[in-house]
Amino acid sequence: MSWEKHVRKVVPYVAGEQPKDQDVIKLNTNENPYPPAPGVAEVIRNFDCEVLRKYPDLNAAALVDALARHHGLDSSKVFVGVGSDDVLAMSFLTFFNSGKPILFPDITYSFYDVWADLYRIPYECQALDEDFCIKKEDYLKENGGIVLANPNAPTGVLTELSVLEEIIAANQDVVVIVDEAYVDFGGRSCVSLIERYENLLVVQTFSKSRALAGMRIGYAMGSPKLIKYLNDVKFSFNSYTMNPLTIAAGAASVADEAYFQEHIAKVVATRERTKRELARLGFVFGDSRTNFIFAAHKTASAKEIFEALRAERIYVRHWDKPRIADYLRISIGTDEEMDRLIAFLEQFLRK
Ligand SMILES: *Cc1c(COP(=O)(O)O)cnc(C)c1O
Fold it and tell me: Is the CB of 205 within 6 Å of ligand 1?
């Protein structure tokens, strides 16, 4: 049939499995093992459904203002979306139209090439070095834009702020997006640089550090010009993306800084403990600054460990892809969940 010739064909992003089964130890999509701040549950319990009769606030002002205050920015520098995936997709559509290839690492968040393909944006992947670090020179050539996750996923590797700034400074003719999905777990945000670089867009999410993956909230921070262009595209596409319950729940999460800090510290402590245990069992890995560890075993096959864990109802992530097939990405759960993982690995690797 000829209509099929004119379909926009894409190979979609493959997300980690979301098993129906409640007794799976789920360490495969970097969710937070703790509940969101108690204020979020309160907002949801007390939500007045009468509000749903009307369209929501187009500008999601309650959430934008809460985020702006939290980061010490003017509200004109904040854009919110339905998860950072929405924000990133909107940013690709808005900013990468020069026809020149955009640049991102060969090993990174696997949605970047999907959006590039979807929007027909040419791209060139830049190989990370053997330690999974970016090579700065790769980002100093002519390009149509740059996207870097920092810390990177699925490697967990952090790029120094000074290196990022050099890349941003050398690329002021294009938009540079820094995806900080994991920055709260020990990275350093480059949000302070948005005052100096009009072309820098910093993207964060509520899905990992704020334990709200199911609520779908992400945001970008950048110069008022970048934010205006993003809003222009958003309002040309679908204006009412943030519903009032989400807006109120997001603002409640931002309001509870003590809870946020306390639970980040818990995940980080569990991560450091898990690193020691994995090292003891013969795993090798970089210095993860995220809520996951990307680890290879010195002798055992990652695929076999992955399958054995799965049979044991412990889900982690494994990609059968060049350069990373020897690795498992293990999200940080509660101490009890990590104990179960370690106990199983201990017994499995002894065989
Ligand atoms: C999880 C993740 C996102 C997307 O998260 P949302 O749930 O859409 O906010 C974006 N980038 C990276 C690197 C991620 O790991």
Answer: yes
